[in-house]
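Deliverable D5.2: sample structural annotation.
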Amino acid sequence: MTEDVGSQPPSFVRQLFVCGTIFTLSMSIGAGAGFSGVVIPQLETEDGFNMDKTQISWFASLMSFATIPTCLLGGFLGEYLGRRMTCCLISPLFLAGFLCTALAPDIYLLYTGRILGGFALGLGSPPAGVLVSEVATPEWRTTFGGGLSTFYMVGMVITFILGKAVSWRVLAGICCIFPTLSILLLFFIPESPAWLVTQGRLVEARRSLQWIRGPHCDVEEEFLRLTQSYAVTQTQKSEKKNFKSKMKDIETKIKRPDVYKPLVLMLVLMFTQQFSGVATLTYYAVSIMENSGSSLDKYTATIIYGVIRLMGSSLGALMMRRFARRPLLILSSLFVGLGMILLGLSTQHNSNRDPEVEDNGFIANYLPLISVNMIAVSYQLGLGPVGWSYTAELFPVDMRSFLSGLCSFATNLYIFVVIKTFPELQSSISDAGSYYFYAAIAFCAAILGMTVLPETKGKNLAEVSQYFYVCCTLGTKEEDSMSEAEKEMITISADGSLVKSNSFIMRLNLESKEVKDEKETRRRTITEVENVGTEVEKMTEKIMHKVKSAPIVKLDELENLL
């Protein structure tokens, strides 16, 4: 017996197929990041062009450098070309990048391959994440969203494992499998229904939604919501401002405390996040284990690091659901700093001992591996995910897209600087000194969490915006500089302190309250007028009744009476 349409829930398998296709792009990104970490020792030999430290630093950092100008462009392409189409365009870039690396006759084509991989990373990350969130049902959206970072780690671990067994050229050729798989699978998935609706292609949008949810799933209600969003989109399109007006609008809004304060905090937090040195463990993984002096196999230690970080990534997503943001950030930063100190101590110990004397002690062999994995797990449990979650929770809704893009741009710049300067930093202040420097920056992140960063878990946007009107201000000057309108918007918090609530959302709430108060005043006035009119009518009736019932008196008798 054939089942009727609507008798089945949305198909999990089809959602998994669409999201799994996007996950192959995440594996390409992870493979590109892990590639430099595992092949750098080979590139320093005759088989790898005898690259010096400066050339190695460029090879490791060029992928991040190429991401900087394209991280904002990827979002625009996703809006104008579509999520799936953008992914189709960037997959060949990944493939070309790995092919250039595998066939490179000199270091310049090797650099070109890294640049192409960086372009693909910057262009593909925004639309890939949006596509996953748009095709997944609410009950699976968080799970599939976490799959992007998980499969990034999977691609990196696979590269670490293969890097132990094959040469760097063969490894680059094997990495071509990931983008090739993406190109093939992308032909079998539809475009995002939500994007098709915003373009007015409603027939295609319904067909795409029906394919993703399954042939026996009733999509009428979900499609109705999408068409309603289409109507809103059309209204917004008719109200678009020109570029000059948009820039002036941004210039005005950036002066608000709930805009510029969280922006400054996020730029500082992302600086401490990246300059804690965690990126160097990925891009220079094997070299770090080799220079630490441990007698453990450097490739085996790197594989262990990759697996531990993969497990930490999954555990971090669970911790973010259950615990507050600030404690996770503070503890994570402290343990990242502690791990960097331990790595510095073990490296310093091994560099000072006689190389001819074999040392099988704990510090020489196992402390480097323990410290590296402590850093990886600690970062994944707090400093990494909390920093990115703040970009969605601290910024006001009317400026969130612009400010998030700005933070992404700055973060990619920080990553490039950290990776590029790592060899020079080691040469100038020693290997151990560079780890101590990163530890100090990690401790600064903990101090930032203890002092000015707000707690956002369980708070609405109004409460978060409200915080920035009293955070990092001088009390008397702030109070004296307030206008009369702002003073009227002072509220008293639960602990008895004054809180200025003229944030974007609180202004809307206040305006809404004023409108309600005005309506209530009008209603009372009308009621009072109606009551007065009723009283006047009653008095008039009484007077008329007395007049009618009064005795008739002649005029001469009235004069006598007077």
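Annotation notes: The chain has 24 helices and two strands. Confidence is low (pLDDT under 50) at residues 474-508.
The annotation will be released with the project's public dataset once the embargo ends.
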